[in-house]
Amino acid sequence: MKKTMLLLVCASSTLLAQDIASLRGSISRGQRRANALIIRNSAAQQRSAQGLQTQTANGDEALYPDRRGSFGKSLVYFDTGLVDNNAFNQMVNAIKTQNPTFFDAITMGTSPVERRLVSPQASFAYNLDGADGWIHSMPAAPTLASAETAGEMVELYWSALLRDVAFNDFDTDSIAASAIEDLNRLSDFKGPKEGGVVTAGTLLRGNTTGDLIGPFVSQFLYQPVPYGPGPNYDGSGTLSIAYQAQVVPTSNVINDFVFTFTDWLPIQRGENPDKSIEFDTTTRIFIRNPRDLGDYVHQDTPMQPYVNATMILLGYGSDALDKNNPYISNPTQEAFATYGMPDILYMVVVASEIALRTAWYQKWVVHRRARPEYVGFLTNQQKSGAQDFGLHSDLIRSTALDSTFNIFSTYFLPQAYPEGSPTHPAYPAGHATVAGACTTILKAFFNEAFEIPSPVEPDPSNSGLIAYSGTPLLIGNELNKLASNIALGRDMAGVHYRSDGTEGILLGEKVAIALLQDEAFTRNIPFNGYSLTKFDGTTITVGARQSVPMLK
Q1: Domain limits of the chain?
Q2: Which one is catalytic: 136, 367, 392, 424?
């Protein structure tokens, strides 16, 4: 048996070139185990054949001895606001050596430690579903002194000032008008435009086609979620369906934090905040403004929006399924454990976890980009004349800073969360990488051209939802919009930059495509593959059942 297994492993490098001799009839448990090994090796060989792309950081860590462009939150910070290089080097050495004991010995900013580093060793976890996270590459993050980072920061300052302005009012609000004017003066702003300029219809939106069609918020964050039998029996022989309304807590209090040096420094050192968000405990409302969206992505679990979207999509019936689903026209079988509801949910959840591990490799091992709240400190110092940190003039001369100072009396970036950003690096955003992965899975399983029934939008008073009757909203576009809403909602809270979100979404897409490819090895029913539209607008076919010969 050992000799047979060895031959199988050695033969796996040529399996993809062979014609399928799929398993037919009954097999023994031992043969099944051998086939499982073939499948694992075949998937690994396919991934290995792709090769590794060069992965580089933006060079800021080496450029600045004071680590002004690098992440170090919860480490030791001096009263100057700069990180202790000894503590920073301990962290980097632990990452480079992958030695667990070195992580335990990092000098932290509080004793006892209050806020710990978030899962840096997740960077080294392997994935046995899909591709290992290290195989995927992404562009280097924009440099600290670049015009792009300046543009991102200007957008973040305006996002903070617009937190309580309804998306529905961006075309009439005076703050939104000032934001649009300021963003259009930037020399390198990567946000979406219409006719080459930022407009009320593009302000704070994502970069996909779907983002610019219809309401700001995706239907998958507005429509009620069906969650099984309801509590009332209607006498018709079936149970009613229970629907969960998608509403969030709200507040009549302005909840902005960490905009003075006195508050900022303890938070940077990793102290727990002494303030909290004050919610109205009696009222919940649909997502209507940047603060609501920021609150949603503050407490959500990684896969929550996409599990909800799955349930909504399944409620649309079989016409909403991907046309290549092999069970749609099958004369004797229907989808369930494969290509059906449990399979879709499984793929969404697995994709979210692989995406996080992939993002964590990029965050900790490669980029270690400073969070916007730290660049807000640098901005305050440079704008006030305390110290020139070399930030681009597009930021320092922006009207966003003047408007922020008029309200907060500082040039710090106001945070929507009392603890500020999480204690892991900025680039890419974990939420964004999960969003890209999970929405790509859903675009594979469902018909992107299917028109969403009974779409809704905020009413003119932003107090309720009414029927939407504009340009038809399609599944593919609204899934793209969902990914952007979740990714850029973190920007609106002040904890990420636009590029963290847009590049994170694209990284997550790579995760999902690799997972779909590898899952194809495990299926039995003939399948021509999913047709899906990538975020760049190109259409691909992925997940066709691979040719893997089995033992009989």
Answers
A1: 2-51, 60-528
A2: 424
